[in-house]
């Protein structure tokens, strides 16, 4: 089970886990039970109103990605002795997912398979990205895939929307198997592995993605 905690305000004890620019957080960790390591996952949500629960879908997508890509062998293959041993086993199994894919899959769950699909109160992710492009608030995909963390920090929503829209495009045109292979390449720079997985350059894929949104 994954515990979900709701906070009415940022002043509540424990709400500090949620970053100032966000309304939710997801935390992957591990603990020792009878000398065996066990993964843990917690979700914290700032509950302003009922619509805040839509943030849960974004954080749940992080849970799916992080838990399904973690190699549990280091945690479970031998008895663990103390926190130091647990920490080493945890980082041995942890797979760092490129920020573009991690945040993109979070918003992909929200816009394409959750709240937005069922309620449709907001424009589509593709339309929102087009609006951001018109305002000059987007970056070329090659830069985003390479992990422009400064841009991601300053423009979190623009960053995750671009990523979500592009991931949906890849799923529709390239298929789930290739997208999963890209996710599991164990490379933090998603631009480096793109061409080898999809057989085309990022520039060509971006051109086709934009054409699909405006076509």
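^ Assign residues to that structure.
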């Amino acid at each position: 089970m994954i515990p979900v905690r709701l906070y009415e305000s940022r002043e509540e004890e424990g709400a500090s886990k949620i970053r100032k620019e966000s309304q939710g957080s997801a935390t992957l960790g591990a603990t020792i039970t009878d000398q065996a390591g066990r993964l843990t996952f917690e979700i914290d949500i700032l509950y302003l109103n009922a619509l805040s629960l839509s943030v849960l879908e974004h954080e749940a997508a992080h849970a799916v990605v992080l838990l399904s890509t973690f190699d549990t062998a280091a945690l479970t293959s031998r008895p663990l002795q103390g926190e130091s041993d647990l920490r080493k086993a945890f980082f041995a199994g942890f797979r760092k997912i490129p920020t573009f894919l991690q945040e993109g899959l979070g918003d992909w769950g929200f816009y394409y398979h959750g709240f937005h699909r069922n309620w449709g109160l907001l424009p589509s992710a593709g339309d929102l990205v087009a609006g951001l492009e018109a305002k000059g608030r987007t970056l070329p995909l090659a830069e985003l895939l390479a992990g422009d963390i400064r841009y991601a920090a300053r423009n979190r929503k623009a960053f995750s929307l671009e990523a979500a829209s592009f991931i949906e495009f890849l799923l529709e045109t390239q298929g789930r198997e290739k997208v999963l292979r890209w996710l599991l390449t164990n490379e933090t720079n998603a631009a480096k592995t793109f061409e080898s997985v999809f057989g085309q350059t990022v520039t060509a894929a971006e051109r086709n993605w934009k054409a699909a949104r405006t076509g």
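DSSP finds twelve helices and three strands in the chain.
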